[in-house]
Amino acid sequence: MNARLSEKFRLWRFPGGIHPEQNKSSSTETPIEAGRIPPRLILPLHQHIGEPAEPLFTVGERVLKGQAVARANGYVSAPVHAPTSGTVIAIGDYPVPHPSGMSAPCMVIEPDGEDRWVDHDSVADYRNLDPAALRNIIREAGIVGLGGAGFPTFIKLNPGHNKAIDTLILNGAECEPYITCDDMLMRERAAEVVSGLAIAAHALQARESVIGIEDNKPQALHAMREAARSYPNMRVVEIPTLYPSGDSKLLAKILTGKEVPSNKLSLHVGLTCINVGTTYAVHRAIHHGEPLMSRIVTVTGGAVGAPRNLDALIGTPMDELLAQCATRMDRIERLVMGGSMMGFAMHRADLPLIKTTNCIIAAAAAEVPRPQPVMPCIRCGACSDACPMSLMPQQLYWFAKSKELEKAQKYDLFDCIECGACSYVCPSNIPLVQYFRYAKGDIWTQESEKEKAGIARRRFDARQARVEREKAEKEAKRQQKKAALDMANARERGEAQAQSAMQRAEARRDAAMQEAGKRWGAQPPTAPESSAPDKTASAEPDKNEPAQKND
Amino acid sequence: MLSAVLILSGLAVLFGAILGYAAIRFKVEGDPMIEKIDAILPQTQCGQCGFPGCRPYATAIAGGNADINRCPPGGEATIIALANLLDREIKPLDPENGEIKPKMVALIDEQRCIGCTLCIQACPVDAIIGAAKQMHTVIAEECTGCDLCRPPCPADCIAMVPVKQDIRTWKWPSPDMPKKIDPPKKAAVNAL
């Protein structure tokens, strides 16, 4: 009945979009296979958007399967769990899958082969749990968006204050070429995926859930319809195959007709979109108490002998996965993580599988497009027609090339979802999306530099103020000292003056008396006589001094 | 005739009063142009422009006493921003003021530091910690890389090192620039 309803469900269309060659069939011929436990697991501490996790173990310590080996650092962060039991043999920088080809902090675990579990509990009935408590379990399970972005899921499932979420959208579109992990997951584990969706809807308190699946996956559509039959307020919707329908904002538009405004989240229009792999992980966390330690990954490409999907442990080196799928390493022309549209080339094959690795393409020479010479833009407008976000890629291209970043921002550079449709259709082979990525990075760098300059200015001003204050204080102290000194000097001088005045007065009096004596014929005063021997007495030692010194 | 003259003179007096009041009421403190220029400058306070800090340079530009191409740490981006703000011609950096270098940060060799505090006194943003006869160290996050601490050091124990780029500060390179690492990693893959 639900299926009937969904067929009548009205769909919207986004502008543009392309139909690249799908290359999906080869990896869907065999069922999902469990990935082998490798001799070494490399767990990057930063597999998600936000702050890197902090290690909880040191080298040499033993860890159990499912044990948190690194904890979330801050709100936007996610813990990392040991995918099997073993020993921590190293913590340090190792190459990780990233477009930069750089290294990042990782924890290396050597499995002991026992695969021994840590104590773990499932939730008896999640419906009795408070949504916040439910979100916390999802957080502790280290679940992040498995569609590729890696945003912590518990944050997505938080509607926030006074914001009712109308619709929870489950993203099963999987529009990118080569990737089939969501398709296979829905085919084989639809019940678990839908169960996880119900849990997520409860955590979010969403009114209804809509599952969007592209019509190139009939088996997945069938399985999901069957699974969703028993849930109320849940609809499976078949959407036309068109790249990039799998973008969360575009899928929201297709299913609800709502457009997410520029610089806003889908949350602001009452929507949240999560990936089928994520709800599967939520189901495992709630009903089995298992944290996120493995994921389904598509291993495909011309160099792969047996392309298929593997349910592999996080941290498994990719060369192990490639070996399990009978890959001829010498035939690999390019190794890509992600799909052929938005994925990036990796520079080595021993990089670990991370939470966001949905696909590994070991492309043979025939699949890799020969680099075509870049020709000038002829302003044909093909990129504008293909852009699903209604941007003007050719204008953005000029602004990015001439570093007119402000103008690029005015032309909504940050609404670009980097789907690559513009580069795909460009007749001049201009790598448009590369320019946009570069321009975005440049703007972010400039903004952070501006922020740093602001801090430096404040520190400089504070220092100037302090130097001024210290100078003023020093000056004040000096003035004070000078004043004190002056006063002391003045007092001394005053005393000296008083003394000399007294002496003068005495001398005057003596002179007066002498005069009077002369005049009256009286005896001369004794004072001058008594002072005379004193003078000679004081003079004598002076004369003796050099003599003494000579001795 | 008389009434027209009276009305016009009355209006003149009224508007004069309004303008006079507005001049006092909405008086702008300081020169807003200096603030705008100062906001563009990188605040390294390095003095390479020939002025004792970014603000004095901003004042000089606003007063027409200095050109806009004298700030090596700001580089091309600052010159372009200043040219746009002041509606002047974009010109290359004046080589007399130095050259554009990658972002640097000061590093004190703590083994050789004698604790003289001369670098602390020289640092314009208080990014060096230490006390007399105590070892000094640089707060790397606050260091603007101005190079002012290096000359006064008697032990010659301060070095300017390029800021290390990690995976979180990495950004996509320009497609116009020659690629440093080219994608087909056949050799690397084969070596494994």
Structure description:
- In chain A, strand 9, helix 4 and strand 10 form a beta-alpha-beta unit.
- A 6-stranded mixed β-sheet of chain A has the order 1-14-13-17-15-16, with helices on both faces. A 4-stranded antiparallel β-sheet of chain A has the order 2-8-7-4, with no helix packed on it. A 4-stranded parallel β-sheet of chain A has the order 11-10-9-12, with helices on both faces.
- The N terminus and C terminus of chain A are likely disordered.
- Chain A is elongated and about 150 Å long.
- Chain A is built from 14 helices and 17 strands.
- Chain A is α/β, with parallel strands linked by helices and 551 residues long.
- In chain B, helix 2 packs across helix 3.
- With 192 residues, chain B is mostly helical.
- Chain B has 6 helices and 4 strands, in the order H-H-H-H-E-H-E-E-E-H.
Residues in helix, % of chain B: 25-40%
CATH topology of the domain at 32-97 in chain B: 3-methyladenine DNA Glycosylase II, Chain A, domain 3
Which CATH architecture of the largest domain in chain A is right?
Answer: 3-Layer(aba) Sandwich
CATH topology of the largest domain in chain A: Rossmann fold
Major sheet details of chain A: 6 strands, mixed
- What global shape of chain A is seen? elongated
In total, the number of strands of chain A is: 17
CATH architecture of the domain at 32-97 in chain B: Orthogonal Bundle
Mean pLDDT of chain A: 88
Shape of chain B: elongated
Q: SS-based structural class of chain A? A: alpha/beta
Task: Write out the CATH superfamily name of the domain at 32-97 in chain B.
Answer: Electron transport complex subunit B, putative Fe-S cluster
Arithmetic mean of pLDDT of chain B? 86
| Most extensive protein-chain contact, per-chain counts | A-B, 47 and 36 residues
According to CATH, the homologous superfamily of the largest domain in chain A is NADH-ubiquinone oxidoreductase 51kDa subunit
Look at the structure and give the CATH class of the domain at 32-97 in chain B.
Mainly Alpha
What number of structural domains do the residues of chain A give?
Answer: 2
Poorly predicted runs of 5 or more residues of chain A: 1-7, 524-551
Count of DSSP H/I helices of chain A: 14
